[in-house]
Amino acid sequence: MRDRLARLIRDNTPTREQLQESKLVRRFAGRALHSQYWRFTRRSVPRGVGVGILIGIFLMIPGLQIIGATLVSLPLRANVPLAGAMTFLSNPATTPFIMLASIWTGNQLGFHADISTFQALSAQGAGFSEWVGWLLSDAAPALFAGLFIIGAAAGLVGYLVAGWIWRVRIARKWQRRKERRPQLERALQN
Fold this sequence. Notes:
This protein has nine helices and no strands. The protein has helices at about 1-10, 15-20, 30, 45-60, 60-75, 80-85, 95-110, 115-125, 130-190. Helix 4 runs antiparallel to helix 9 and helix 5 runs antiparallel to helix 6 (about 80-85).
């Protein structure tokens, strides 16, 4: 299963050369395609996870999430592909829960957004203009403050967990290497 997933990702991910030839990326290729943004290192991986989760939750607009995660990853020297992938944690299944939690969080900070109006608009399948009207009321500050706090907290947790997983993974590699060393020394002596 893991090999199939790795093969699927490898076969469908564009190479650096393909990205350099792209009309959209060519202008920024020197900076954005630098190898430091695409390597998996102990510093870039947690940064990529944290940035991707923060931007994925805060922006909530699918096309802008990956672009935003990429733009924030560059100055922070975070892993760009991982940051882009982490934006998918906020998807249509999780969006209503994130929105409700962010409105509640914003209300706890002293802003005022009516959750019952949000639920009514969601239940009746309100149009774009009705949602914009609701957002332009007192709901926008509560929503954005809540999204930022939840995104920052989730990004921090993601950063810490990714760093911990990285350390555990490296410790296991060193342990296996240490266990194989006597076997290699015996093989060399014979």
